[in-house]
Write a structure and sequence with these properties.
It is a single chain. This protein has two domains: 53 residues; 49 residues. 61% of the residues lie in helices and 0% in strands. The protein contains five helices and no strands. The longest helix is centred in the N-terminal third of the chain and has 26 residues.
Length: 125
């Protein structure tokens, strides 16, 4: 993360030549560092979930639903209204996680035989 911040400061004069790198307030730098920290924690969480055996097809879909807690908390915190269409979308997102988490019943699929992505089907003896 430190290298990312240093790289950003080093390349900013090339990207925005008319702006000084010293124009940022301490608050803006703090928010940028916190944003980078949480982004990296999310990435590490994805990789750790896959390292311990999580399927990429489930882990990536689950992590792509990061706006879901915001949508669910919006009525409580921001006093917003969830429309019926948004409720259907929330239900579909939760159903997708449940359906993707179910074990496959296709025992003779390429993925079950370890040949996923090769296009070669093998028969199990």
């Amino acid at each position: 993360m430190v290298l990312l911040v240093l790289g950003t400061f080093a390349t900013q004069p090339l990207v925005i030549p008319h702006e000084s790198i010293f124009i940022y307030s301490h608050r803006a730098i703090l928010y940028g560092l916190l944003s980078g920290l949480f982004s990296n924690l999310g990435s590490w969480g994805i990789f750790e979930a896959m390292r311990v055996g999580g399927s990429a097809s489930i882990v990536t879909v689950f992590t792509a639903l990061y706006p879901l807690p915001v949508v669910l908390l919006a009525p409580l915190v921001l006093h917003e209204y969830i429309t019926p269409l948004q409720s259907v979308g929330i239900a579909c997102a939760i159903a997708a996680i449940v359906l993707l988490s179910l074990p496959s019943k296709m025992g003779n699929s390429p993925a079950a035989n370890g040949d996923a992505g090769t296009g070669v089907l093998t028969s199990s003896s």
